[in-house]
Design goal:
It is built from 19 helices and two strands. By secondary structure, the protein is an all-alpha fold. The protein has a two-stranded antiparallel sheet with strand order 1-2. Helix 3 (39-51) packs antiparallel against helix 4 and helix 16 (302-316) runs antiparallel to helix 17 (323-338).
């Protein structure tokens, strides 16, 4: 059914701990009202109509929920009803993405709750970006035209999409003082909860900030950029949290995804810096370090700085179960670097990086066999130990010349050939 596909696609992040999506045909278990009212029965009725492939009838029921939620100021139920209205409308609407966008655009001015306003802004940003991705090649061929209908997204160029999406994601986290006081469990009826979500995404601010980061860390290109572009060229990006927070992050390059990424990492770090449970801060720190190392092409000795910070964190958290999580990051660095080892270069220091990665994981598991990251360490060790063998033969060979072939192998003591 078409509305199923749309409902699953609305606001599903690729790496979010929580997915802002009500799962169809399970609203009785997941989507019931937690503050009373007739919503349980109404959601069951809507589900039953969905199963009978009667989306317009189901939409009438959802509209009843929506009107009552607005009247009684039950904001989470209102947001859930909006999501379902979009999905159900897709069954009889032609331009699904455009309709969804128009729906959220109409709802935003009606919002009486700043937290819900932020949620809707994040939703609209996601929908804009989804439309752009679906029509990317067509949009990239457009040139900027003056005097067009700016309310019609079907006429926008790539810079307009980036500008709108960037503005909406930034606006969605701009009310940080309010959002940081809103526990995410308030929206349990529209969230699919993952393991550890209460630890890593405890507030609505955390959820929306990480959704924004998914976009800003996407590395999308195609923009017209100014001459003075923002770049990660300061060692502070790979420094400890206090050094990172002491940096002034600013640029005239307001379309820079790197800039917005680091600005949000700063705000998340500042918010969680003094948490009693350090795991949310540790996740933010590790993600920031990895992103800066991968994108900080202007930072001198970035690999060395990255490893130094991981070693520093390892010492700080050596007695904690998440020590294994940090050590996995170190092992993963050596493993990935080892993939670039050149056997024909006797001076290539990456020769023993696989062994280094294996030993790092082995030592970490000896200390904390059930810690966070233990599964990743075991998987990496198994991957390193796994035997592999490949043979490459040229598609064509000059007549009368010996045929050359390349054999690549790992974890084999002997290899036998038979030529027939």
């Amino acid at each position: 059914m078409r509305f199923l596909r749309v409902l699953r696609s609305i606001l599903i992040g690729t790496s979010s701990v929580l997915l802002l999506c009500a799962v169809p045909f399970d609203t009785g278990a997941q989507g019931s009202s937690r503050d009373g009212g007739p919503y349980d029965q109404l959601w069951k009725e809507a589900d039953s109509l969905m199963k009978k492939q009667l989306p317009q009838s189901a939409l009438k029921v959802v509209d009843r929920i929506y009107r009552d939620a607005v009247k009684t100021n039950r904001q989470p139920e209102m947001v859930k009803a909006i999501i379902y209205r979009i999905a159900l409308s897709s069954s009889f609407e032609e331009e699904v993405n455009v309709t969804a966008i128009m729906t959220i655009q109409e709802e935003l001015p009606k919002s009486r709750d700043l937290a819900v306003t932020s949620l809707l802004e994040s939703m609209l940003a996601e929908l804009y970006w989804s439309y752009y991705r679906s029509n990317r090649w067509q949009i990239l061929e457009r040139s900027v035209v003056a005097g067009y209908d700016e309310t019609d997204i079907r006429l926008w160029d790539v810079n307009r999409f980036f500008s709108e999406v960037t503005t909406l994601y930034n606006r969605s986290v701009s009310r940080s003082e309010i959002l940081q006081k809103v526990p995410l469990k308030r929206y349990d009826n529209i969230l699919t909860r993952a393991d550890g979500s209460k630890i890593y995404r405890p507030t609505l601010y955390d959820f929306l900030a990480h959704r924004a980061l998914e976009f800003f860390t996407s590395g999308e290109s195609g923009l017209t950029r100014p001459g003075e572009q923002y770049s990660l060229d300061h060692p502070g990006y790979l420094g400890n949290n206090n050094a990172f927070l002491g940096m002034e992050i600013s640029t005239p390059d307001t379309m820079s995804l790197l800039f917005h990424t680091m600005r949000i990492y700063q705000e998340l770090t500042r918010f969680h810096l003094h948490d009693a449970d350090p795991r949310a801060l540790l996740e933010i720190t590790l993600n920031r370090l990895r992103f800066a190392r991968n994108n900080g092409h202007g930072i001198a000795d970035r690999d060395l700085l990255y490893l130094q910070m991981l070693e520093e964190l390892s010492e700080i958290y050596k007695s904690h179960s998440y020590y294994t999580w940090i050590r996995y990051q170190v092992a993963d660095y050596y493993y990935r670097a080892g993939l670039d080892y050149k056997p024909d270069d006797p001076d290539d220091e990456r020769r023993h990086y696989f062994v280094e990665a294996y030993n790092i994981c082995h030592s970490a598991l000896a200390l904390h066999p059930k810690g966070e990251g233990a599964g990743d360490c075991r998987m990496l060790m198994e991957n390193i130990k796994a035997p592999s063998l490949s043979v490459r033969v040229p598609e064509a060979n000059p007549p009368g010349q010996p045929m050359l072939f390349l054999t690549s192998y790992k974890n084999h003591d002997e290899i036998y050939y038979r030529v027939e």
